From TrEMBL:
Protein known as: DUF5785 family protein
Organism the protein comes from: Haloferax namakaokahaiae
Domain of life according to the entry: Archaea
InterPro entries on file: DUF5785
One Pfam family hit: DUF5785
Amino acid sequence: MDWPHDPDGEEGSEGRRKYGQAIIAKKIDEDEDFPLNKAEFVEEFGDEPIRIDYERVVSLGEIFEHVDGEEYGDFVEFHKAVGKGMREAGYWFYEGAEQFVKGKSA
């Protein structure tokens, strides 16, 4: 896929390789963006690349296909929903991520 910018470049990861949820969190202004509407957020950033691990890059929109909720009241609620969705979709690359999904709610 052709990305609007290099996921490892300055715009994608602030000059250092960062992964997944850290890149998504950087798109949020905690003081101004809440409550945050999922559809509007995906419309604005959906085509942007998110590096999942050292091999895989997916779009933010693809990640949000697995994130529950339509609106998030604050950063913690948003962060929990994104993390849960990423774990359930297999977008967490560390060993043991599945233990945080089974029977847990965001």
